[in-house]
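Field: COMPLEX_INPUT
Field: COMPONENT_COUNT = two
Field: RESIDUE_TOTAL = 227
Field: MODE = joint
Values follow.
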Amino acid sequence: DGGITQSPKYLFRKEGQNVTLSCEQNLNHDAMYWYRQDPGQGLRLIYYSQIVNDFQKGDIAEGYSVSREKKESFPLTVTSAQKNPTAFYLCASTHRGQGNYGYTFGSGTRLTVV
Amino acid sequence: GNSVTQMEGPVTLSEEAFLTINCTYTATGYPSLFWYVQYPGEGLQLLLKATKADDKGSNKGFEATYRKETTSFHLEKGSVQVSDSAVYFCALIGSSNTGKLIFGQGTTLQVKP
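Field: COMPLEX_OUTPUT
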């Protein structure tokens, strides 16, 4: 079955360390997105990519980095510069220009800084 | 810029009660509107959508009508079940071509037997 796989489901990081969250899709979608979810808040866009080798900052990109070397993969790195990284991270995808059909979301990665 | 505002939660209802979750939006042009649902510990699932004024989206007994005159997209269900307990997000995609989905803050629904 087609879908989006995020791994790991739970991740613990020590302060000062970088950590990379994986997002893989086999839906042949062009566009991929990373959102951050905090309790009592909606989802906030971190980065998005509409084609391979191209990506744009979202509303809260500071302290994060991404790459899009393959259509299927859009990893997110949470760097030590991110001041408050503990959150639930969601990856999503859609066909480029077809967001009106809705996004497909992964099941998320919960990152905790210890 | 574009934005979405949802009613504050949590909402607690008894089984078979009527549900309304209010959602209003601010956007230029003609956005597409969505309701997503998130069950505990999971990602989001598309519940329903509407892409133009006066469209009604419906799924699993939930309905929402795109009201441009009041810039609203309220979610309704006539008889909720315990299994409907989840967080509900209203969202929009603006008429630009970036495809960015903008979310409201989410409303937690708890249905008691």
